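Hey,
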Amino acid sequence: MKIIGLTGGSGAGKSTVAQFLAARGAGWVDADAVYHKLCREHRRMLAGLAEAFGEVLDEDGALDRSRLAPIVFASPERLALLGRLTYPYIRAASREAFAACEQAGRPFVLYDAPTLFQSGADELCSDGAIGVIAPRELRIARIMARDGITQEQAASRIDAQPGDAFYRARCRWIVENDASREETEHRCERLLTEILGDRAQAGSKR
């Protein structure tokens, strides 16, 4: 089954791209959703996070993201450590989700992962990756509106993540999410045509 990575920094608009492609039949495995479920239930992973980052669990033993976020977004090194600790668990759960998409007859699966390359999750995406990028100030505004945080906090989060050049160098496709929703959908439509065209060509060579 064709598995395509979907990545980009906070506020770039990955979900907008994913929602469009999913509405047109693509499978969509959100690594963050997989991670959040693990953060509620996977005791071994949670114990590792507490050991690495201190008091980041709530009274029920689940991860308190409001405690963890300022720690890991304070430096790229801590963010990378978070990825190393959680990725093995996310990978195993994601493979199960891919299998479910295949059983449902999806033409391809989007693997939506903000740290796709940093965590090594791109190894699951043999068909390449889509990088979603947007101007810094627009991303800051989106994060502030979405998460209810200050401009300084939003900027700090962005500055701890790679810039556009990182995604341009590694992704097979780039979607610039810097225009109206209508224009972004036009760009996604062209992307979908290309992906499905690649799939059809691969099938004809068998």
